[in-house]
Amino acid sequence: MPRAVALLSLLLVLLGAAPGWAVFHISAIDEIMSGLNGDATAQYVEIKMLADAQIAVAHTRLTAFNCDGSTSNVLLELPQDLCTGGAGWRWSMGTSSWAAATGVTPDFPFSPGLFAPCGQICWGAPGIVPPNPATWDATDPNNYVDCVAYGGYTGPRQTSDSTASTLPPGDGTMSLQRMGDTGDDLADFALAARTPANDGCVTTTTTTLPHGGGGACKDFAGVANTRMQVAAQCDCAGAANHGTYVKCAAAVAKAAAAVGLLPKACKGAVKRCAAMSTCGKPGFVTCCRTKADGGRACRIKRRAAACKVPKGGTACVGDVPSCCDACGATTCATVTTTTTAGATSTTAPTCVQRGGSCTTSAQCCSHYCYVDHCY
How far apart are CA 299 and CA 315, in angstroms? Predict the structure, then answer.
């Protein structure tokens, strides 16, 4: 039975038991291309949705594997869901040079990172809804909705994929496209005239750098994608100490720059985001303080109670570890201050554990709220 049909049968049962749950599993990688008109950085991955309501893609990953699967790079963690969906609907992820060359802006941008002429590209996440990416292994192909192995790839594949395609991910003019869904990439894919598409709600990715951290770095998408690599490769909560974590982040940034995924001028920005974090500092928090004049600053504090509200302003404790992200509207809950009989006490927000009730993603320790529960 083709993989998509099997998934459809399973999820129809699940949807019948829980009406209204949006899913993302009934979909497949439909088209990939690395290299267009001699530009190796022009890269593109298109997803085809095979049923209605397949729009809950936030926190899924796009990951590239090299020829033998010994190296994998998380190219993108999708920042939001799709705007539109339906059976046969297509949406895309791609590089800025692809957009410039084709005139079609992908829904989600990523920095060049597909391996050529051989490798594997995987997209998706395990579970009914995408869980917190930090909780699952990005190097296991079976954790994804779909993977396409090309160019005679010899590394680990999904157990449902029998054979890798011998074709490259495009020949400079044509793309590698799905022609069937039998679970055999050798039979299912062929080179054909490219047909790039998007969902119609293009996403702009931005990254906030710490004060003085911008410098000559202008590739904010590259910084964001490299920081995703840091999150996947460096253990924030389990780091022996803060210095160990920052050293790991610096090594990831150096490696990304060495293979062209990150401009050398941006290595410092990635390291500073790691340095201005609570990683390797148990009990520490990010504290975002906004003064009465609107000035905002983030600092690392030893405990939540130390995140004091400035006169006439506000303060909040972030539910993310780095000051590069802590002051976002969806990641920072307001600290409340209560005065009783001359005594002032400050109550910092706490996050909801997985399985608990929520109304917004900001309330969840995992940063993902779905159908009123944290996942």
Answer: 11
Provide CB contacts within 8 A for 17, sequence distance 6+.
Answer: none
Token couple for 200: 């119609």
The C-alpha atoms of residue 17 and residue 22 are separated, in whole angstroms, by: 13
| Domain-located, residue 203 | no
Which of 353, 74, 54 shows the shortest CA–CA distance to 230?
74
What are the pLDDT digits (tens) for 252-305?
Answer: 888 888 877 788 888 888 898 899 999 999 999 988 888 877 777 888 999 988
Pairing of strands 336-340, 314-318: unpaired
Please give the tally of structural domains in the chain: 3
Nearest of 177, 149, 162 to residue 64 by alpha carbon? 149
Phi, psi of 59 (to 5 degrees): 80, 5
212 CB burial (10 A radius; 0-12, 13-18, 19+): exposed
* H or E element, residue 374: strand 373-374
Q: Is residue 205 part of a domain?
A: no
* Residue 213 domain flag: no
Calpha distance 166→149 (Å, rounded): 9
Q: Which amino acid, 308?
A: K
pLDDT tens-digit profile of 205-258?
334 444 334 456 767 667 777 887 787 788 888 899 999 999 999 998 888 888
CATH number for the domain that contains residue 9: 2.60.40.1260
Q: Quote the CA–CA distance of 192 and 174 in Å, as a whole number.
A: 5
Q: Select from 275, 302, 318 the last residue of a domain.
A: 275
Confidence (pTM): 0.57
CA gap 298, 113 in Å, rounded:
32
Ramachandran category for residue 150: left, alpha or beta (phi over 0 → left; psi -120 to 50 → alpha):
beta
| Domain interval for residue 319 | 285-374
Task: Centre a 10 Å sphere on the Cβ of residue 350 and count the other Cβ atoms it contains.
Answer: 12
DSSP assignment letter at 8 = H
Secondary structure class of 222 (helix, strand, coil)? helix
Residue 268: what are its φ and ψ, rounded to 5°? -65, -35
Q: What is the DSSP string of 264-294?
A: GGGHHHHHHHHHTB-TT-TT-EEEEEE-TTS
